[in-house]
Design goal:
Length: 163
Amino acid sequence: MPATLLREGGQAALVDALFDAAREWSVGLHFNKGLAGAPAAEIAAAKDTATNPQVLDAFALAIIAGGGAPAFPGMPAPDLLAARRDADGIDKAMAALRKIAPDAGAYVSESNYFRRDWQRAFWGTNYPRLLAAKRRYDPHGLFFVHHGVGSEGWSGDGFTPVS
């Protein structure tokens, strides 16, 4: 969540968005994930990392999430109707926050598995530099994870390079 929302002109919108989001799903604000207000030396050090530069001016990470037991063969099947209802509530809650922070980044370890703009959300302006390093040091894509740098070069199941 960008620190600009804490200024006089953004506070009412922040409160309204949090209220609207919380009506749809539980909202957690993690204040240990943003660097707004940090000492200059800490911000300078963070600029020299792969993290999305938006963290430098973020006051908190908003987490709106659901979860459940994994679905493996031989285990009870998940309740897909309930999962779809939960996903809808989560999407609506996130939409309320996106109204006030439409281009906010995301924390790669706690993000939407289906996020379409993951390169921008996770790494922002750092992505081209990270992709160049990935291509240089791992040209065959041996090391990858879902929505990791360079993973757009692989099929959804991770077994087939995409041309």
